What does this fold into?
Amino acid sequence: MTTLTSNGIELDTSPEKFGELRDSIDIVHDAAACRERMAVEGYLYFKGLMPREKVLEARREILLKFATVGEIDGINHDIMDAIYHENTFIDKVNLRAFTESVRTGLAYKDVVLSDEVIGYWERFFEDDVHPYDFRWPRFVRPGEGCGFHYDGPYMNRGTDKVYTSWIPLGDVKKEEGALIVLENSHKVDALLSSYAKRDADKEKISWLSTDPIKLQDNFGGRWLSTDFEAGDMLCFTMHTLHGALDNNSPTKRCRLTSDTRYQPANEPIDSRWNGANPEAHGYDKVFLPGLGKWNNKEFQDEWKKVDALGRLDMG
It folds into this structure.
């Protein structure tokens, strides 16, 4: 297997330490089986849930926007290849307008609110679904990755019946920065009794860890991932420990994926992420992952401060 790293640390990819995500597409229409497997494994991976063409339309829509700010090379390469362009000028544009445009594109909306996605969650909840109003399309440059965390501390002010859908907007091989989950991490009492109960904004917590080896030593379990393809969807609980492999693409291909959250419509919602103008982590920040590593102490790894004109403020 190709060498895999996360936050610069090489993973042990022996069968005892690393495995493939289990495909659950065979039970996608069996809600009871999905709920049972989610409770046991903490995630559900559906290979080929959506038409590939629909997902690629969203990919094209978003990559065209990143090309306009110089983040990818659309002159020497096909836009869809998402090859990183080092002469980016993303620090010169209005990031409020740019990120809002990316989050609200029609083709992207057609994926995260598709019949396949919403239908799955309606069956799972046995109820109408409330998709979070805020969406997280994630652009990961070569050399970038993500720290390890539960989603719960960032989403826990409403109901605990919230789940994440991670959708690759294009094919994502492991070495290009695929998401990884720690097996059985949703059952770790030491995390559930402490870390899971924290509030990221009130307590200004950083990543739980950036070391995949220490996490395995502390909590056990294999790291699980796969080579994702456009049309796949990975779902997991608010208490499933996850992060990402580093994007070590040999061709400097950027990773494009999406995080969206869903809950039963009749449950309380977290106002940070819902409404006409979600507060998120503060109105002085926009969702723009990467561009450096700060251990996410003030959410900097994923959220960037902007000035009054919406321009990047790294000061």
